[in-house]
Amino acid sequence: MPSNQQILLDNRPTNEAAASNFKLTTVDTPALVDGQVLVRHHFLSLDPYMRGRMNDSKGYTAPQPLGDVMIGGTVGEVVDSRSPKFAVGDKVVGMGGWQQFSVVDGNQIGALRKVDTTHVPLSHYLGAVGMPGVTAYYGLVKIIEPKEGQTVVVSAATGAVGSAFAALAKARGCRVIGIAGGLEKCRYAVAELGFYACIDYKLHDTAGSLGKAIKAECPNGIDGYFENVGGMVLDAVLPLMNAFGRIAMCGMIAGYDGKPMPLMYPALILMSRLRIQGFIVSEHMDVWPEALKELGMLVSTGKLKPRESVAVGLEAAPEAFLGLLKGKNFGKQIVKLV
Amino acid sequence: MPSNQQILLDNRPTNEAAASNFKLTTVDTPALVDGQVLVRHHFLSLDPYMRGRMNDSKGYTAPQPLGDVMIGGTVGEVVDSRSPKFAVGDKVVGMGGWQQFSVVDGNQIGALRKVDTTHVPLSHYLGAVGMPGVTAYYGLVKIIEPKEGQTVVVSAATGAVGSAFAALAKARGCRVIGIAGGLEKCRYAVAELGFYACIDYKLHDTAGSLGKAIKAECPNGIDGYFENVGGMVLDAVLPLMNAFGRIAMCGMIAGYDGKPMPLMYPALILMSRLRIQGFIVSEHMDVWPEALKELGMLVSTGKLKPRESVAVGLEAAPEAFLGLLKGKNFGKQIVKLV
């Protein structure tokens, strides 16, 4: 039995998440029983939604239990199998969590999915051709429902969701504008990700100032906004929304810490007759097949070039995760375990 | 030619609307040309949306031009006609504005609608069987889309919209809870309007305190909320919304004055996967026939007993309107002109 490093949620954050919320431990992997599969994780995905799960709040699906391995998406390889459905050597995507190995019931629907790494590198199944990509797809296609020629905006533009959003929106003939932190990210968004323009929010102290910069790139207003961060950025975008605009609420990083993060002018929702919809992509599994098909095609044809921030070793996960919450990553944040 | 008292929008409010924003004047009614109809208004409707039109802000449809007669719904009687479509004596609903008479082009689609006063008193076509009633219908049926047994909540519960909302929600088997200002209104909501319970927001200083009182009447959470006021009430309701809850944004009286009226925890939109939709009922004319049919039936069978606050004489309109914005009315606010 190989030994298995794990990171547990040890205690809940009172406001900002901290490294001390996590605990590193090592256990033996248990012997398999019939039907089970042992997966060695090659990469662990770090995503903003994990911050929400660290809170014990009503409404958000299933808070992460204390003392359990932190949940998280993983890609890896089957290293032992007592299931007829999986063979040693199969490349698989699952929710293995923050650990080196996981034992999975091969009969549990959707728990493990075999993937083909001929045209798409394994790690991208955690990003562009995985949960973040489908998240971008759901928000754009199912909530924003853009028409050709419309203007759509996304915050955290160079992240895994933002870059997939750009490729999907461009394929639909939209003018797609990004918002990101720092000149380097903004340049990259335009040069590599297909954004028409990208606004650096770090150059602005107020929603009014940021709003002017966004407006300059959106002369016809904004028809759809994909929200990944909340706070000042949302306040800057809201007054620019066209009548009957749609806002897909996917992330509110700025609000996960429990501090109030007010939306200053909610009356604009009425005045501009907006539709704002919050969603969690794991609750819309019916959309995954069509989304993954398009995303896989965009990646394999080079129209979507995912960038990754790679931390090395499980013990590096907490720091990389805290950095992600502060926008320190540049591209999809993953942890390389093998 | 009869002389015609009018109230014009003289200047725009800088923050709170005031009587000095309006100007009373008297003109002669012009001679009719072919196709025109002269209507004598019996009742003028006063509605919160008018406050939005007084601002010169982008997004909200057509600001009221300065120097023009204030817009507003009216019911009255045809007193002269050069249109084959309308005869002297016809009872009609229109948008005659804050004046005693209006001249209407009889050929303009939707400008005047003949109504039957056999079972529904004329003034109710400005309220329960008019724009406010259809507003309640659209928010409940098209946005909230309640299922039998679900809990729905409405603010400004004893107003024209709130009372229609209660009757429509009750007809769909919902538990309908009201929020209103003052013990008298709350008692009336339960005794006469069919609310299961009504919470007096004036007894509470904070959203937290108000939220506890609402929660006590909503043991299974809130599935749909119809927002007529905004501010503290919205902050109190938001944390009580069930997953996949719907909020129809119809009025934000607290936000019309241009002061920021923040929504304190917008992250709840994501955490509870809410859908929030702003709307203006005049942009959804396709819904009016089905809505008016049900509302007329509810009134004529006594299941919806509309209450009216009646101001007398056109010169009383500004003060009655300012009182409406502060919640001083009790039931549908109208002005009796004849």
Describe the structure concisely for a colleague:
Chain A has about 350 residues and is an alpha/beta fold. Chain A has helices at about 50-55, 130-145, 160-170, 185-190, 205-215, 230-235, 265-270, 290-300, 315-325, and strands at about 5-10, 20-30, 35-45, 75-80, 90-95, 100-105, 110-115, 150-155, 175-180, 195-200, 220-225, 240-250, 275-280, 310, 330-335. Chain A is built from nine helices and 15 strands.
Write down the overall geometry of chain A. globular
Low-confidence stretches of chain A: none
Q: Give the H and E element order of chain A.
A: EEEHEEEEHEHEHEHEHEHEHEHE
Do you know the CATH architecture of the largest domain in chain A? Alpha-Beta Complex
Number of helices of chain A: 9
Number of strands of chain A: 15
Portion of residues within helices of chain A: 25-40%
Terminus-to-terminus distance of chain A: 17 Å
Structural class of chain A: alpha/beta
Average pLDDT of chain A, rounded to a whole number, is 94
CATH class of the largest domain in chain A: Alpha Beta
Q: Can you say what the CATH homologous superfamily of the largest domain in chain A is?
A: Medium-chain alcohol dehydrogenases, catalytic domain
Report the C-alpha radius of gyration of chain A, rounded. 20 Å
Integer count of domains of chain A: 2
Per the CATH scheme, the topology name of the largest domain in chain A is: Quinone Oxidoreductase, Chain A, domain 1
> Largest beta sheet of chain A, briefly?
7 strands, mixed
Quaternary organisation: homodimer
Percent in strands of chain A? 25-35%
